[in-house]
Amino acid sequence: METLESLVERLAAAVPGAEVKILPNPSPAQQPSLLVDVAHAVAVARFLREDAACRFDYASNVTGVDWLDQVVKEKVRTTRMVEGVERVFEETKEHVEPGYLEVVYHLYSMELGHGPLVLRQRTADRGAGARVASLTPVWRSCEFQEREVFDLFGVYFEGHPDLRRILMWDGFTGHPMRRDYVEPDDYEYEPTPHDQVLEKARRHYPAAGGKPREGQG
Questions:
Q1: Is the dihedral of CA 73, 101, 10, 55 positive or negative?
Q2: How far apart are CA 177 and CA 151, in angstroms?
Q3: Within its chain, how far is the Cα of 191 from the centroid?
């Protein structure tokens, strides 16, 4: 497989306006990935599938990552006049980088026998802007896995043919794989509560010793 640097250059020529960056990976695997902007994600995906040197014809895995707001500290130098003399001071300033959600695709070429190529999309934020482009129209194997990411992380996939919950039920509130998700302490469906679950159940069913009342279990 060609280098990512070469691939990014060819993508820039083939998909005008696309913002594709190489993200290093500091983990032991040291496998870098490509970050693509949402607006051009489908066009980039089609190139990766159809280009003769790429032929990434199989998306084996789609998953989500939740990045919370992050406080970043940085040291800055300022100059101030002290008793008529200009002096340099070093200060630590903090700012908050807003969080986002990330969708990660692992791509392989069954035809050419190479991969994986790791492709990422990022949402604008963790709220109303938690949207990316669905790549199901390019790789059908993404359909159920994008539904999982929608269900568990709350990422909305623009252009998905059947976007609805796949693991949780329709009336479920929230997205349980988000890092700030708070699980409810109502275990009315737990038939044999024990340990921490029992302690929580007791708060809801004190008269029953922590067991669901008749007709609720």
A1: positive
A2: 9
A3: 34
- Strand, helix or coil for residue 47: helix
Give the Å distances, CA to CA, from 195 to 19, 117, 132, 190, 213.
Answer: 50, 44, 40, 12, 19
Please check whether residue 64 is in contact with residue 103, taking contact to mean a CB–CB distance below 8 angstroms.
Answer: yes
- Tell me the per-residue pLDDT of 126-178, one tens digit each, with 9 for 90 and over: 988 899 999 999 999 999 999 999 999 999 999 999 999 999 988 888 999 99
Task: Give bridge partners of residue 187 from the DSSP assignment.
Answer: none
pLDDT digits (tens, 9 = 90+) for 198-212: 777 777 767 666 555
Distances (CA, A) of 143 to 30, 117, 150, 161, 206: 28, 19, 11, 8, 44
Structure tokens at 22: 């190489």
This model's pTM is above 0.85: no
25: left (phi over 0), alpha (psi -120 to 50) or beta: beta
CB atoms within 10 A of CB 126: 21
Q: Count of CB atoms within 10 A of residue 74's CB?
A: 9
The whole-angstrom separation of Cα 15 and Cα 18 is 6
Question: Among candidates 159, 167, 217, 158, which has minimal Cα distance to 192?
Answer: 217
Q: Is 171 helix (H, G, I), strand (E, B) or coil?
A: coil
Q: What are phi and psi of 42, to 5 degrees?
A: -65, -45
